[in-house]
Design a protein that fits this description.
15% of the residues lie in helices and 36% in strands. By secondary structure, the protein is an alpha+beta fold.
Amino acid sequence: MKRHKTILALSALLMLAYACNRSTPLIEDRRSYIESVEQWQYDRLEGLKAKDGWLNLAGIYWLKEGAQIFGSHPSNDIVFPEKAAAFIGTLTLSDERVHVEVNDEVGLYYENKRVKELELSYDSSGAPSYITHGDFAWYIMKRHNSLAIRLRDYKNPAIEALDHIPSYPIDPDYIVEATLHPFDESRTITVNTPFQDYTQEYNCPGELHFKLKGHRLKLFPFSSGEGYFIIISDETSAMDTYGGGRFMYAYPDSSGRIILDFNKAYNPPCAITPFAACPMPPPENHLPLEIEAGEKTIEGHETF
């Protein structure tokens, strides 16, 4: 009898230990999870089509020091798409200050008021001057020490042309828990972009270690608010998925775990428009397996 009680007690202790050590499921309900990713996919498409989305971009025009005439006529220094006015005016860049003078017969608007001349603030100021002209809107963007016009066309045919983003079937097996192995000191990682002379720098606090499909893997995450921005490539890159890699975000959950959800790996803007400068994955972030989750290549879009 005493031996029987001892066995029962040991069994109870083992069950308690198992319950305490068993990890909390990464998803509580499969159906609810799939519905949440489907909603994320819908919101993602709507974001691309929004007024501040990527699908309406119509041009990037790098500015040179001095005066430059602009409009749709081929003789201009800066040539806008043909539905813009032939000769809009003159942009002058001097000591990182941009001034626009508008030709008399042209309607150019700032804050819904017609303007004849204006000094333009650029995006790094936090409050860029948005100029409108017909279906177009544009502002000055600053990248490193260079300034450019970023032009939007709110009637860009690409907006209606994209009715869905090709994606792999949603698979909960592509949700994994990762552990951050911090560096002694955070590192600055320089990554390339499609522009030959333009790179970007990110703060990397350490390595994310995780297991997926029987592989032990690691990635360089970049600090982004309370979470991490991650650029990946894998064995589907330049095949089913965009050759320039895919983006992900990861955040600690309520228990502090870092969750990687590859079902939300998405195309960078450069997979959608040629008018973006996207960071490309560092060599350390190539995963030596096929990540058959998340977004696929979008066919029919002119990109880098």
